[in-house]
Amino acid sequence: MDGGWIRRLMADTRYVVTGWPLALVSFTVAFFGLLFGIGAVVVVGIPIFISSLYALRSFAERERRRIEAVLGVRIPRPVYKEPPPDAGALRRLLNPMTDPMSWIDLLHGSVMVWPASLTFLVVGLWWLNAIFGSLYWAYGWLGPTSMNQTLLNVGLGLLCLLTLPLVARGCAQSQARLSRLILSGVAELQERIFGLEAERTTLVAQRDSAVSAEAVALRRLERDIHDGPQQRLVRLALDLGRAEKLFEADPQAARRAVAEALTQTEETLGELRALSRGIAPPILTDRGLVAAVGAIAGRCTVPVALDATDLSGRPEPTTEQAAYFVVTEALANVAKHSRATGCSVTLRRSGESLLATVTDDGVGGAHLAKGHGLAGLSDRARAAGGTLTVHSPPGGPTTITAELPWQ
């Protein structure tokens, strides 16, 4: 059997045994602080009371560290009230008296002496019975005794010895939990509230980012449709109208017009397919992110090296879509603006995150400011719960990294 239970027993005993004198000192400081603060002359009593509050604050912080060692959990620290920067000397002097946490420390110093005394008494008696009772056979002969008395004392001693770890653990935990409730209850509530507020802020930011990203995507789609398929459809209508007028007067010219219209139709269909792939490519849903990115890389005008050897499994669909969008837009900007001769895309899983990195050897100078080719990528990553970083010094190279949650 390892010595873990022995170390635990000694730690619990040390907490209880040292906790009683600390609680006694804290009670003394709290008692005399209140005594001077209430009954003494204001000029003398108030400074003494305030000094006792600062002393109790240090005792409380020491107790929080001791609680962490016993319970094995992190104890949140309260935020003590600070005086305003422009506060005068009197305001700074009286500041601890206006801080609720100072009164909580005072309450802890006033009441914890009683449970600390009880646990100290219980653990002390258990240790004494465990030691002297189990060894009664060794010194019982020094006085008049009987075999039954020896057996009774040894039996009680062995019982205390066997139950000592449980009793010490129960007393230490009871005392520590009560101290935690008094000293850190408010701080834990504040931390929980701050966590909920931070989560709400994050959700609001993700919502705003999603709205912004969708707005950017819709504007880009509208622009692409206007500049591409819409113009081709207008020309297609003109060609068909011209062909209709030429059927009787010049059949050959009419056939040429119809042939041009067919060409316009095929090109328009090709552009519409490309736009639909950018919105919701079937290959992403059917075969996953690696295949979808490979298809995009194959159509890029700049040579792209894809490395997905460290990617195992498939992340959440929203993460795949965000990563696909980031890589697609990044490659589009490489082709349009970077003047690069080569590009690499890396997909890998890092813990509970998906890392999608696009690097090119172009001229650099890329950033996320509005009006540039990368506008909207950061919003897209943030909407999925991730982040986007761009490192693109003048002269290159440019590295775009999206870190997205796996689940």
Key terms:
single chain, 407 residues, alpha+beta, Heat Shock Protein 90, 3 domains, 5-stranded mixed sheet, 13 helices, 5 strands, elongated
Descriptive account of the structure:
The chain is elongated. With 407 residues, it is of the alpha+beta class. The model has no long low-confidence stretch (mean pLDDT 78). The chain has three domains: 4-190, no CATH class; 228-279; 281-405, 2-Layer Sandwich (Heat Shock Protein 90), CATH 3.30.565.10. It has a five-stranded mixed beta sheet. The longest helix has 81 residues, at 147-227. It is built from 13 helices and five strands. A hairpin with a 2-residue loop joins β2 and β3 (353-360). The two termini are 41 Å apart.
Total strands: the figure is 5
Enumerate how many helices there are, as a single number: 13
Instruction: Please state how the strands of the largest beta sheet are arranged side by side.
Output: 1-2-3-5-4
Main pleated sheet: 5 strands, mixed
Structural class: alpha+beta
pLDDT under 50 segments (min length 5)?
Answer: none
* Fraction in beta strands: 5-15%
Helix content: over 70%
Task: Give the overall average pLDDT.
Answer: 78
Report Rg.
38 Å
Q: Gap between N and C termini, in Å?
A: 41 Å
Oligomer: single chain
> Please, how many domains?
3
Identify the overall geometry. elongated
Encode the helix/strand succession as letters: HHHHHHHHHHHEHEEHEE
